[in-house]
Known about the structure:
Blueprint: H1 5-24, H2 35-43, H3 53-84, H4 93-108, H5 111-122, H6 126-150, H7 154-162, H8 167-203, H9 208-218, H10 222-250
Amino acid sequence: MWFKRRNILTVVLLIIFIYFSMKLTEFDLTKFKDFRNMIDFMSQWFPINFSNLSGIIRDTLQTLAMAFLGSLLGLIIALPISFIAARNTSPSPIIYHFWRVFLSFIRSVPEIVFGLILLTALGLGPFPAVIAIMLHNIGVLGKLISELIEAADPGPQEAMKTVGAKGWIVSLFSILPQIWPNVLSHYFYRFEVAIRTSLILGFIGGGGIGQRLFNDFKTFQYPSVSLDVLIIMILVIIVDLFGGYVRNRVI
Length: 251
């Protein structure tokens, strides 16, 4: 069954793509012959320096606030947009295509580009980072939620329409309850991504633990870098566990 012409062609194309990707990225495992250098470098990270723990916790909370606020504002704005960007709830095909293109456009711009643009107008600090995260999340969450709306069971919608319910009431009471657990799942995933994005935005002056990590690297404070990384890992794990708890409660 597997030896069909189409499957063989797929495997051949896959091998060709892998080959050219390895050539273009200079993928070469023999470069790990200098693995010893990395071990020597990592050894400088220990013992971990806990003297700056209070400052790191403050920066971590700032990073958490940036990620939370940017993701939540993105969700609040993306939710109504996703209903007019979904094929089955959009008022007209023109409006549907317009918002789909808008979401694709805003999603194609990375947060760091938004951050660099906003820094020129808003200056350094976490505020432009929050706006950058929000803008990108509008594009991503808008697309994901609109696809959930299109995949929602049409039965409850038709039942409400037959009793004369208006469009927005149908969306609110027949579609939203169906997709809400998945909306929360997408939100918490984007929240995790936003934490990592906040770190990158910190490298360009967005504040938070990302900026501290960048400064520690730049000043060769490797024992502090190890504490930064440890705190970031703990933060992501806590957010993941909290997201799972909320999803289970909702489902």
